[in-house]
Amino acid sequence: MANTVAHTNPLDKVDHLEKLMPHESNINEEGEHVVLPQHRHHFETQEQQREAGSFGMWLFLLTEIMFFGGLFFAYLLYRNWYYPAFAVASNQLNVPEGAANTAILITSGFFMALGVWAAEVRKKSLLVVMLILTTLFGLAFLGVKADEYHEKYEKHHIPGANFSTAMFTNPAAYGIKEQPLAPDMAEHTQLFFFLYFAMTGMHALHMVIGIVLLFWLTWRAHRGEFSSGYVAPIENFGLYWHFVDIVWLFLFPLLYLINRHPLH
Amino acid sequence: MAHEVSHDQAHDPLNVTNPEHSEHHIVSPIQYCMVFGTLLVGTALTVVAAYIDMGVLNPVIALGIACFKAVIVILFFMHVKYQSRLIKMTVGAGFFTFIVLITMTLLDYVSRAWGMW
Questions:
Q1: CA-to-CA distance for A225 and B72, rounded, in angstroms?
Q2: Is the ipTM beyond the 0.90 threshold?
């Protein structure tokens, strides 16, 4: 266009600008291009923008897999080294609460998935309800988690100065049907609880960040931002939320259910 | 669908006419309900299996169920089953890289003090 303008007589410029303007609007008429204010000009189509967004979100989640993977790997090695300590320490975790929390988190993820569907079919109030339910179940998970942490505090199972190996060196005194551990092995239960707090704590931190984002997304959904065909933020947040679910699906059996059968 | 793409469409550096971008599948609520039910059943199975003594199979079964649950979450809740090949490749490459890292670290670990694992 610049070349064309340069070659023309200045008097014709107005005429050319008039020709330019209809051309600009022609791009709009081709549809897809500027239907939504959220559509960025450097993407050819909405679908291309959407796929680029999903792609970027997945790349972020892959770094998260590596991050949690490091923690899981530390767990694998220490569990291998100090299996007796890991088995009895794991048996002090609260299985009913852990199992209930798994169900709560799956339910939260289910509502998130329905939320993505509600955004796709442009049901604004349903989307808001689903996001609120996702948030409520997420908060319920954190509530149960806090109760479990409090239980660890009462049992002196938080690593540090107040950590006590008494339950593991003298289980009979606490009514626990376990073989007593030698003091040096019993010390290694602290390592299990360190990994327990590191892994569930990092998972809980992801939940807290997710819930903050959910408040923001619920507000935007309430304003109708995601019920007119623009669902990328909901969809990409859904990916994050489901990823956090998946981490818990592995944490629950690995931390809570190492060696439950002798107790039965 | 590569075989359906004509020559003109295949030569499409900006992916404008490539139908892979324009197909957008919406997963239905019924599918979500089925996945939800399967995940709850999987959780119950995990807990029940943990209380049955199966020796070395206990952690294998626990991880097997967890992997199955993770796969259906990825395929349906995270829509990977209905995404373009780019996304599928990205997810696959990520898990592949993760497995490579775990394997190589483990090989280093087991080979340093052979027999003292």
A1: 29
A2: no
